[in-house]
Amino acid sequence: MTDQEHKTSRRATIMRGVVTPIFGLLAVACFVFGILNATEWKPTAQVNASASADTRYVVTDPGVLALADGASTVTVTSSAADRKLCVVSGLPHDITGWVAGHPYTRLTGLASWSELSVTQAKATGTPDAPADAVSLEQSDMWQSVDCGTGTVSIERPADAASTELLFDSNADAAADDDTGAALTVSMSWTRAKLPDYATPLYFVGGLLTIAAVLSASLFAVHPSKRRKKGSASGTEVARVEEEITVTIPHLVAGIAGSAVNSAAVALHLAKPKRRRHARRAAGGTGGAESAASVPQPKVVDVTDRNMVAQTAAAAKGAQDAQPSQDARPVPEVTLGPVQSSPDGGADADRAAAQDAEPTSVISMDELNAYIARLNAENAGKDGKGEGGSR
């Protein structure tokens, strides 16, 4: 077994024998707790909490009536069934002024889902004199007043949950009398929306299940084998990678070369190729001066003229004009002495006329034939001259 196969086998053993069971157990635990929270451990919609007090006055703190829900039901039961019991709602400063100088019990919140938390307190100030005192039921400081004997029950709507309640267990007694019966205060709420603890547990359990499946299948396979399985074959993958490796640098080099050439042309660093055109060949000093006087060369179409035909036509015209061979125009290129002709002026005019015509481009074979013919004519003239002198 090679090292890679040993590593692959060890990886599969760890992922399938250790990691997968852990994820599976956690997923099962999440599902079990989710089911329990949706059934046995589901929060109840009805909340009932109560507390006991042995002072004459009992006061609720702001917000206590809306601990579990907006609307609430408050029930007060007195241990003395013959004493008058009153429950009033009012503003915090009015209630504080009424209990000034008296000990009282405060209901501060929920100690548990079935018990209210209480604390003992005493308001600062002095109680009203008995002569000037007004009974709790007759006072005009309260928003609502409910009185009875033994038990009093009131319904508090959601919009009145921010107000405070004052309980008086001995409403008929004088203002400075602190004696009262023991009270039992109960509050109940019916929750319209219950907290959902099951859905998050189901979600986490689903994620753990997916992790367990991946650990047992995909993550247990070596990365090199996963790459091979994803393609048709290893050779095909290598070939494609090689093509990509070779093609990309060439493509980059081509783009860079094109950009450099374009920049060189724009900066006039690279001269564009031009077609070569034949220029008029001028013989002697007159030809050089004539070429210098022309500002630009004249482009001649080589297919428009035939030098051989033109030369033959010029020679025939010269013979018709003057039968004598001495009257022929003398070419500019000579290999020997040239006899002067009596009609020098006419010859000069014809030569000038021929020079004024545009010269066509000829090949090297035609030029060699023309020079050979010229040499033959000059050689014939030299032979005639020697024969005449004899």
TrEMBL record:
Composition bias, Basic residues: 270-280
Residues covered by region (Disordered): 269-299, 311-363
Low complexity biased stretches: 311-322
Segments passing through the bilayer: 14-36, 201-221
Protein name as annotated: Asp-tRNAAsn/Glu-tRNAGln amidotransferase A subunit
The keyword Membrane is assigned to this record: yes
Species in which this protein is naturally found: Bifidobacterium moraviense
Keywords: Membrane, Transmembrane, Transmembrane helix
